[in-house]
Amino acid sequence: MSKKKNALLPGERCESAWCEVRNSGIHGRGLFASKKIPQGTYIIEYLGERIDKDESNERGWAQMDVAQETGDAAVYIFTLDDDWDIDGNVPENAARLINHSCDPNCEAFIEDDSIWIAALRDIPKNEELFFNYGFDLENYKDHPCYCGAENCAGYIAGEEYWPALKQKLAAAKKAGKRKSAKA
């Protein structure tokens, strides 16, 4: 009898019949298709505590401080709307374990004040689930990307920010060449 690569931690649950938690080659643990998932399928809801923006900022910065000390990427706050966010740092939220990719097979969307993860394409059994986290460029250097996708932007950023990110990276590279030429 084979042992599962990574069972849920104590108190964790994965309430979706479409996926399960396993070790990820990208980062820590991830969610993987437990069976073939057809395009458009609602896979799992992103669960957590509904909090206002002030509380969200306070928790987010506190979680970032812990993450910097421990090396754990443990900020699970997801924007719901202009006034509210969802703090997904709760054991019943297996969706928080979905890793980022620059070439995602899933997307996150909001429907009736709920955040859902759905399949962008047919996903074969055992494939890891990914969505693009959509981060802006404010602190992009703090979020290097390790997705390994052919089109990887190098940092975790929403695709709409990639042109500006490419400009920033080209400018930094050019400035670095100037410094080394002067040395």
Offer a few descriptive terms.
single chain; 183 residues; alpha+beta; three-stranded antiparallel β-sheet; 2 helices; 23% strand; globular; disordered N terminus
SSE arrangement:
Blueprint: E1 19-23, E2 29-33, E3 42-46, E4 49-52, H1 53-70, E5 77-79, E6 84-87, E7 99-100, E8 106-111, E9 114-119, E10 130-131, H2 162-182
Parallel strand pairs: 7-10
Antiparallel strand pairs: 1-2, 3-9, 4-6, 5-6, 8-9
Largest sheet: 3 strands, antiparallel
Described by the principal axes of the CA atoms, the overall outline is globular
Query: What is the N-to-C succession of helices and strands?
Result: EEEEHEEEEEEH
Radius of gyration in whole Å, from Cα? Answer: 18 Å
Query: What class, by secondary structure content?
Result: alpha+beta
Low-pLDDT stretches: 1-6
Distance between the termini: 62 Å
Tell me the strand order in the biggest sheet: 3-9-8
- Average pLDDT across residues? 87
Helix content: 10-25%
Number of strands: 10
Q: What is the tally of helical segments?
A: 2
State the assembly state of the protein chains: single chain
